[in-house]
Design brief:
Layout lengths: L5 E6 L2 E6 L10 H16 L5 E6 L3 E3 L4 H9 L7 H14 L5 E5 L2 E3 L1 H8 L2 E5 L3 E3 L13 H9 L1 H10 L3 E2 H7 L4 E3 L4 H13 L3 H14 L4 H16 L2 H11 L10
Parallel strand pairs: 2-3, 3-5, 4-6, 5-7, 6-8, 7-10
Antiparallel strand pairs: 1-2, 8-9
Family: Belongs to the enoyl-CoA hydratase/isomerase family.
Protein name: 2-(1,2-epoxy-1,2-dihydrophenyl)acetyl-CoA isomerase
Pfam families: ECH_1
Length: about 260
Protein backbone atom coordinates (compact mmCIF):
# COMPACT_ATOMS: atom_id res chain seq x y z
CA UNK A 1 0.00 0.00 0.00
CA UNK A 2 1.44 3.33 -1.08
CA UNK A 3 1.94 6.15 1.39
CA UNK A 4 -0.61 8.99 1.40
CA UNK A 5 1.26 11.71 3.21
CA UNK A 6 4.98 11.08 2.63
CA UNK A 7 6.62 10.82 -0.77
CA UNK A 8 9.77 8.73 -1.17
CA UNK A 9 11.95 8.85 -4.27
CA UNK A 10 15.42 7.45 -4.92
CA UNK A 11 17.51 9.00 -7.70
CA UNK A 12 21.28 8.97 -8.10
CA UNK A 13 21.79 7.36 -4.67
CA UNK A 14 19.72 10.10 -2.95
CA UNK A 15 16.50 9.24 -1.14
CA UNK A 16 14.28 12.32 -1.19
CA UNK A 17 11.61 12.11 1.50
CA UNK A 18 8.90 14.76 1.20
CA UNK A 19 6.29 15.53 3.83
CA UNK A 20 3.14 15.93 1.76
CA UNK A 21 0.17 17.49 3.55
CA UNK A 22 0.60 20.98 2.09
CA UNK A 23 -2.93 22.16 2.90
CA UNK A 24 -2.15 21.55 6.59
CA UNK A 25 1.41 22.93 6.43
CA UNK A 26 2.63 19.32 6.63
CA UNK A 27 1.45 19.04 10.22
CA UNK A 28 1.87 15.54 11.53
CA UNK A 29 -1.02 13.14 12.04
CA UNK A 30 -0.53 9.58 13.27
CA UNK A 31 -0.67 7.99 9.82
CA UNK A 32 1.86 10.45 8.47
CA UNK A 33 4.28 9.80 11.33
CA UNK A 34 4.15 6.06 10.63
CA UNK A 35 4.80 6.72 6.94
CA UNK A 36 7.74 9.00 7.73
CA UNK A 37 9.30 6.45 10.07
CA UNK A 38 8.86 3.74 7.44
CA UNK A 39 10.40 5.92 4.72
CA UNK A 40 13.44 6.68 6.86
CA UNK A 41 13.91 3.03 7.80
CA UNK A 42 13.57 2.05 4.15
CA UNK A 43 16.23 4.58 3.15
CA UNK A 44 18.53 3.33 5.90
CA UNK A 45 18.20 -0.27 4.71
CA UNK A 46 18.57 0.48 1.00
CA UNK A 47 22.16 -0.17 -0.12
CA UNK A 48 21.57 2.02 -3.18
CA UNK A 49 20.90 5.05 -0.96
CA UNK A 50 23.98 6.97 0.18
CA UNK A 51 22.34 10.23 1.31
CA UNK A 52 18.87 11.34 2.39
CA UNK A 53 17.12 14.64 1.69
CA UNK A 54 14.16 15.55 3.91
CA UNK A 55 11.85 18.39 2.89
CA UNK A 56 8.24 19.55 2.84
CA UNK A 57 5.76 20.30 0.06
CA UNK A 58 4.05 23.64 -0.34
CA UNK A 59 4.83 26.64 1.85
CA UNK A 60 5.94 24.83 5.01
CA UNK A 61 8.60 22.35 6.03
CA UNK A 62 6.52 20.97 8.89
CA UNK A 63 4.26 22.78 11.36
CA UNK A 64 4.68 20.02 13.94
CA UNK A 65 1.89 18.03 15.54
CA UNK A 66 -1.53 18.36 13.95
CA UNK A 67 -3.43 20.06 16.78
CA UNK A 68 -6.85 19.00 15.52
CA UNK A 69 -5.98 15.34 15.96
CA UNK A 70 -4.26 16.17 19.23
CA UNK A 71 -7.37 17.95 20.52
CA UNK A 72 -9.50 14.94 19.61
CA UNK A 73 -7.21 12.72 21.65
CA UNK A 74 -7.41 15.11 24.62
CA UNK A 75 -11.22 15.28 24.49
CA UNK A 76 -11.37 11.47 24.31
CA UNK A 77 -9.16 11.19 27.40
CA UNK A 78 -6.24 9.69 25.49
CA UNK A 79 -3.83 12.54 26.28
CA UNK A 80 -0.87 12.40 23.91
CA UNK A 81 -1.95 8.91 22.82
CA UNK A 82 1.67 7.85 23.46
CA UNK A 83 2.74 9.48 20.19
CA UNK A 84 6.07 10.67 21.60
CA UNK A 85 7.23 7.14 22.40
CA UNK A 86 5.51 5.41 19.49
CA UNK A 87 6.19 7.92 16.73
CA UNK A 88 8.44 10.89 17.41
CA UNK A 89 11.21 9.08 19.26
CA UNK A 90 11.57 6.33 16.60
CA UNK A 91 11.58 8.96 13.83
CA UNK A 92 14.35 11.00 15.45
CA UNK A 93 16.38 7.89 16.16
CA UNK A 94 15.94 6.76 12.55
CA UNK A 95 17.47 10.05 11.41
CA UNK A 96 20.28 10.32 13.94
CA UNK A 97 21.27 6.65 13.94
CA UNK A 98 21.13 6.24 10.17
CA UNK A 99 24.53 5.32 8.75
CA UNK A 100 24.09 7.88 5.99
CA UNK A 101 24.10 11.69 6.00
CA UNK A 102 20.69 13.37 6.18
CA UNK A 103 20.09 16.87 4.81
CA UNK A 104 17.03 18.93 5.72
CA UNK A 105 15.81 21.35 3.06
CA UNK A 106 13.75 23.75 5.18
CA UNK A 107 11.45 25.38 2.65
CA UNK A 108 9.20 27.28 5.06
CA UNK A 109 7.90 27.21 8.61
CA UNK A 110 9.42 24.54 10.86
CA UNK A 111 7.62 24.51 14.18
CA UNK A 112 7.59 22.30 17.25
CA UNK A 113 8.31 18.70 16.36
CA UNK A 114 8.72 19.82 12.75
CA UNK A 115 11.66 22.01 13.73
CA UNK A 116 13.04 19.18 15.85
CA UNK A 117 13.07 16.92 12.78
CA UNK A 118 15.29 19.44 11.01
CA UNK A 119 17.54 19.73 14.09
CA UNK A 120 18.02 15.95 14.08
CA UNK A 121 19.39 16.03 10.53
CA UNK A 122 23.12 16.30 9.94
CA UNK A 123 22.95 19.43 7.79
CA UNK A 124 20.23 22.02 7.24
CA UNK A 125 19.75 24.28 4.21
CA UNK A 126 17.03 26.88 4.65
CA UNK A 127 15.13 29.14 2.30
CA UNK A 128 15.49 32.81 3.18
CA UNK A 129 11.75 32.80 3.93
CA UNK A 130 11.97 29.93 6.42
CA UNK A 131 11.27 30.33 10.13
CA UNK A 132 11.88 28.13 13.15
CA UNK A 133 9.55 28.17 16.14
CA UNK A 134 9.75 26.15 19.33
CA UNK A 135 6.01 26.14 19.87
CA UNK A 136 5.81 23.70 22.78
CA UNK A 137 5.38 26.05 25.75
CA UNK A 138 2.82 28.06 23.79
CA UNK A 139 0.39 25.19 24.29
CA UNK A 140 1.63 24.21 27.73
CA UNK A 141 3.97 21.39 26.73
CA UNK A 142 7.65 20.59 27.17
CA UNK A 143 9.92 19.93 24.18
CA UNK A 144 9.97 16.53 22.53
CA UNK A 145 11.44 14.88 19.44
CA UNK A 146 14.92 15.41 20.87
CA UNK A 147 14.72 19.22 20.72
CA UNK A 148 16.07 19.66 24.24
CA UNK A 149 19.14 17.61 23.22
CA UNK A 150 19.79 18.73 19.63
CA UNK A 151 18.97 22.43 19.93
CA UNK A 152 21.42 23.29 22.71
CA UNK A 153 24.17 21.39 20.89
CA UNK A 154 23.53 23.49 17.80
CA UNK A 155 23.15 26.96 19.33
CA UNK A 156 24.35 26.63 22.94
CA UNK A 157 22.38 26.41 26.20
CA UNK A 158 21.48 30.10 26.46
CA UNK A 159 20.04 30.48 22.97
CA UNK A 160 18.30 27.10 23.28
CA UNK A 161 16.66 28.15 26.54
CA UNK A 162 15.48 31.40 24.96
CA UNK A 163 14.00 29.61 21.97
CA UNK A 164 12.35 26.89 24.03
CA UNK A 165 11.00 29.08 26.83
CA UNK A 166 9.81 32.05 24.79
CA UNK A 167 8.82 30.22 21.64
CA UNK A 168 9.44 33.26 19.47
CA UNK A 169 10.00 32.57 15.75
CA UNK A 170 13.59 32.67 14.51
CA UNK A 171 14.13 33.90 10.98
CA UNK A 172 16.41 32.12 8.54
CA UNK A 173 18.96 34.93 8.79
CA UNK A 174 19.03 34.69 12.59
CA UNK A 175 19.19 30.90 12.38
CA UNK A 176 22.32 31.22 10.26
CA UNK A 177 23.88 33.58 12.81
CA UNK A 178 23.14 31.11 15.60
CA UNK A 179 24.58 28.17 13.69
CA UNK A 180 21.18 26.52 13.52
CA UNK A 181 21.41 26.05 9.75
CA UNK A 182 24.30 25.27 7.44
CA UNK A 183 23.38 27.84 4.83
CA UNK A 184 20.53 30.10 3.69
CA UNK A 185 19.59 30.53 0.04
CA UNK A 186 16.82 32.39 -1.84
CA UNK A 187 13.61 30.37 -1.68
CA UNK A 188 13.60 29.66 -5.40
CA UNK A 189 17.10 28.22 -5.21
CA UNK A 190 16.50 25.89 -2.26
CA UNK A 191 15.66 22.68 -4.15
CA UNK A 192 18.77 22.97 -6.31
CA UNK A 193 21.08 23.95 -3.44
CA UNK A 194 19.84 21.18 -1.15
CA UNK A 195 20.03 18.58 -3.89
CA UNK A 196 23.59 19.61 -4.77
CA UNK A 197 24.62 19.21 -1.14
CA UNK A 198 22.93 15.80 -0.90
CA UNK A 199 24.56 14.76 -4.19
CA UNK A 200 27.98 15.73 -2.88
CA UNK A 201 27.41 13.56 0.18
CA UNK A 202 26.04 10.71 -1.94
CA UNK A 203 29.32 10.67 -3.85
CA UNK A 204 31.38 10.53 -0.66
CA UNK A 205 32.71 7.79 1.64
CA UNK A 206 29.46 6.51 3.13
CA UNK A 207 31.04 4.38 5.83
CA UNK A 208 33.31 7.23 6.92
CA UNK A 209 30.24 9.46 7.18
CA UNK A 210 28.50 6.84 9.32
CA UNK A 211 31.54 6.61 11.57
CA UNK A 212 31.68 10.41 11.84
CA UNK A 213 28.02 10.59 12.87
CA UNK A 214 28.60 7.93 15.49
CA UNK A 215 31.71 9.66 16.82
CA UNK A 216 29.96 13.02 17.14
CA UNK A 217 27.03 11.53 19.00
CA UNK A 218 29.23 9.47 21.32
CA UNK A 219 31.60 12.34 22.10
CA UNK A 220 28.73 14.60 23.17
CA UNK A 221 28.15 12.60 26.34
CA UNK A 222 31.32 10.57 26.95
CA UNK A 223 34.72 11.52 28.33
CA UNK A 224 37.72 12.33 26.16
CA UNK A 225 39.37 9.04 27.13
CA UNK A 226 36.29 7.05 26.11
CA UNK A 227 35.98 9.03 22.89
CA UNK A 228 39.61 8.38 22.00
CA UNK A 229 38.99 4.66 22.37
CA UNK A 230 35.95 4.79 20.11
CA UNK A 231 37.82 6.89 17.53
CA UNK A 232 40.54 4.24 17.39
CA UNK A 233 37.94 1.52 16.79
CA UNK A 234 36.16 3.56 14.14
CA UNK A 235 39.43 4.33 12.37
CA UNK A 236 40.31 0.65 12.28
CA UNK A 237 36.96 -0.11 10.69
CA UNK A 238 37.26 2.71 8.14
CA UNK A 239 40.84 1.74 7.29
CA UNK A 240 39.58 -1.67 6.22
CA UNK A 241 37.15 -0.24 3.63
CA UNK A 242 37.69 -0.24 -0.11
CA UNK A 243 36.99 3.49 -0.15
CA UNK A 244 39.91 4.24 2.15
CA UNK A 245 42.33 2.10 0.16
CA UNK A 246 41.33 3.55 -3.21
CA UNK A 247 41.29 7.13 -1.87
CA UNK A 248 44.78 6.74 -0.43
CA UNK A 249 46.04 5.44 -3.76
CA UNK A 250 44.33 8.31 -5.56
CA UNK A 251 45.88 10.86 -3.20
CA UNK A 252 49.38 9.50 -3.80
CA UNK A 253 48.76 9.51 -7.55
CA UNK A 254 47.48 13.10 -7.35
CA UNK A 255 44.09 11.96 -8.64
CA UNK A 256 40.59 12.71 -7.43
CA UNK A 257 39.22 9.75 -5.41
CA UNK A 258 36.04 7.99 -6.47
CA UNK A 259 34.08 6.61 -3.55
CA UNK A 260 31.81 3.61 -3.91
CA UNK A 261 30.34 3.70 -0.44
CA UNK A 262 31.99 0.49 0.77
Amino acid sequence: MSARYVRHDVTDHIATITLDRPDSMNSLIAEMKVELRDALERAAADDDVRAVLLTGSGRAFCAGQDLRQHAENLEAGRGLDDTVRQHYNPIVRAITEMGKPVVAAVNGVAAGAGAALAFACDLRVAADTAKFAMAFTGIGLAPDSGASWTLQRLVGPAAAAEMLLLGEPVTAARALELGLVTRVVPAGELPKAAHELAARLAEGPTRAYAATKRALSYASWHSLAQTLDLEADLQDACAATDDHLSATRAFLAKERPTFKGH
